[in-house]
Write a structure and sequence with these properties.
This protein folds into two domains: 38 residues; 147 residues, no CATH class. Strands 1, 2, 5 and 6 form a four-stranded antiparallel β-sheet that branches. A three-stranded mixed β-sheet has the order 3-4-7, with helices on one face. The chain has 198 residues and is an alpha+beta fold.
Length: 198
C-alpha cells in the first residue's frame, strides 16, 4: 500500500491563498499597464456643447419674484380693495434650447433659449390684507355677496402676480442669471457659449 504524505489543512489553505494573491497582483499589473497604454494612445476631446446636457436639466429656475400690489374690485353689491402680496417662479425650459452656431476651432458656440415663463404664481394669504370692503347700495334690504367678490378678487390677484412677474424689471435679472448658469456649465468643458433669446 502506498502512503501519501499528509498535509495539514492549514498548509493547504495558506498555499491556496498565496497562489490567489499572486494571481491578483499579476491581474492588477496587467490592468494598470492596459490603462496606461490606452491613455497614452487615445486622445479624447469634446466635440462641443450638446443639448443633451440641457435636456437632463429640463427646467432651469433662475429667480423667484416677490410681488406687492393693490387690487380693487367691484361687484356683487360691494366694492373692495386688497393689498396683495405673493411670489412667482420664473423658469426657462432649457430642454427646448437650440444650438445655432458652433466654431470648433475657437471652441465657441451660440445657443438660442426659449423665453422665460412663470411656472408657479401664488398669493400669500397670510400677508395679503383686506384694505376696505363697502356695500355699494344704500338700500338696507338689497342683497349682495361679499364672499363672492372676495373669491373673484383672489382669483384675479393670482393673475396679477403672474403679470407682474413677467414685467421687464423682473425678466432682465432672470435672463442674466440663466446666462451665467449656462455659461458656467459649459466653461467646465472649455467652451465659450453665447446665449440668444427667442
Amino acid at each position: 500500500m502506498i502512503r501519501f504524505p499528509t498535509l495539514s489543512i492549514r498548509r493547504v489553505t495558506i498555499t491556496i491563498l498565496v497562489l490567489l494573491g499572486l494571481c491578483a497582483v499579476y491581474w492588477l499589473g496587467v490592468e494598470v499597464d492596459q490603462r496606461r497604454h490606452m491613455a497614452a494612445t487615445n486622445q479624447i476631446r469634446s466635440l462641443g456643447p450638446t443639448i443633451s446636457q440641457l435636456e437632463r436639466i429640463s427646467e432651469l429656475v433662475p429667480i423667484r419674484v416677490h410681488v406687492a400690489d393693490v387690487l380693487i374690485a367691484q361687484g356683487e353689491g360691494y366694492k373692495g380693495a386688497w393689498l396683495i402680496k405673493g411670489d412667482a417662479v420664473l423658469s426657462c425650459d432649457v430642454s427646448r434650447a437650440k444650438i445655432v452656431h458652433i466654431d470648433s476651432a475657437a471652441r465657441r458656440a451660440t445657443l438660442r433659449l426659449p423665453p422665460l415663463r412663470v411656472t408657479s404664481a401664488r398669493v400669500d394669504h397670510e400677508r395679503t390684507k383686506t384694505w376696505n370692503v363697502q356695500k355699494t347700495s344704500w338700500l338696507p334690504w338689497s342683497g349682495g355677496d361679499q364672499n363672492a367678490l372676495r373669491d373673484t378678487a383672489m382669483y384675479h390677484a393670482q393673475r396679477l402676480i403672474e403679470e407682474a412677474a413677467l414685467s421687464e424689471r423682473n425678466l432682465e435679472p432672470a435672463r442674466n442669471q440663466t446666462v451665467i448658469l449656462i455659461q458656467q456649465m459649459y466653461e467646465i468643458v472649455g467652451w465659450d457659449v453665447t446665449i440668444e433669446w427667442e
